[in-house]
Amino acid sequence: MINVLVADDELPAIEELAFLLGKDDRIGTILRASSGAEALRALETQAVDAVFLDIHMPAVSGLEVAAAISRSSRPPAVVFVTADEDCALEAFELAAVDYLLKPVRAERLARSVGRISELIRDGGAAPEMITVDQGGTTKMIRRDDVTYVQAQGDYARLHTADASYLIRVPLADLEQQWADAGFIRTHRSYLISLSHVSHLKLAAVRPSVTVEAAELPISRRHLPSVREKLEATRIRPQA
Predict the structure, then answer these.
(1) Rounded distance, CA 63 to CA 56, Å?
(2) Is the distance from CB of 26 to CB of 72 less than 8 angstroms?
(3) Fewer CB within 10 Å: N-end or C-end of the chain?
(4) Nearest Cα to 62, choosing from 94, 19, 30, 26?
(5) Contact at 8 Å (CB) between 53 and 7?
């Protein structure tokens, strides 16, 4: 079970988030704090696995709370919950596991809890982050949020479940750099994340792969390597 602390200076926001977390079977104890200072006091006496922090709290902000707990020997995972997109860069510089925008959707919160579970299981390995620009704003996104990449000339468009981002890196470069992270080339225009694949059609006529809600082609040139990769990941009975 994952024990958490929810900190926000608005009581309705605390209760709403606590209600949503309480519906998740993976969540255990839910502590509450109505200020940054109260959150720090709670963390001195209570051990938790994760802290859900509002950023804009008076006196001691969520960012200051995160900076303080990052100096502890075994800091809990930090998820920022805010109405402000502009602090994402600072948040991820503090090794935040996630950055949720208010109002928080139940399915999005469930993904955050899943990330916390992975972090606990993997012994605290930090996620790979990518800096992207969108609408004149610099953001940071997790590489494991990228479902597939689409070639656009000398650029590549990173697709996530919520948005897409154009970066000035050729697809061929990403193919080499991200191979160890489970990304494979399926077409001259597409690089996909195996962890986000939901369906495959490997027939000789119009083979394709479905990543999230997108059905993408598999070229005849890349079909053998896709088959080989899938065969390598197949679970077999012990001899």
Answers:
(1) 8
(2) no
(3) C
(4) 94
(5) yes
Residue 166 near residue 159, CB atoms below 8 Å:
no
In the sheet where 208-211 sits, what is the strand order? 197-201, 208-211, 214-217
Do the beta carbons of residue 196 and residue 159 sit within 8 Å?
no
Tell me, letter by letter, the H, E, C secondary structure of the chain: CEEEEEECCCHHHHHHHHHHHHCCCCEEEEEEECCHHHHHHHHHHCCCCEEEECCCCCCCCHHHHHHHHCCCCCCCEEEEEECCHHHHHHHHHCCCCEEEECCCCHHHHHHHHHHHHHHHHCCCCCCCEEEEEECCEEEEEEHHHCCEEEEECCEEEEECCCCEEEECCCHHHHHHHCHHHCEEEEECCEEEEHHHEEEEECCCCCCEEEECCEEEECCCCCHHHHHHHHHHCCCCCCC
29: which 2 tokens?
């104890």
Mean pLDDT for each 10-residue chunk of the chain (239 residues)? Answer: 97 97 97 97 94 95 94 90 80 84 93 91 74 79 92 94 91 94 95 91 86 92 87 62
Q: Determine contact, residues 159/167, Cβ cutoff 8 Å.
A: no
Residue 143, Cα to own-chain centre: how many angstroms? 8
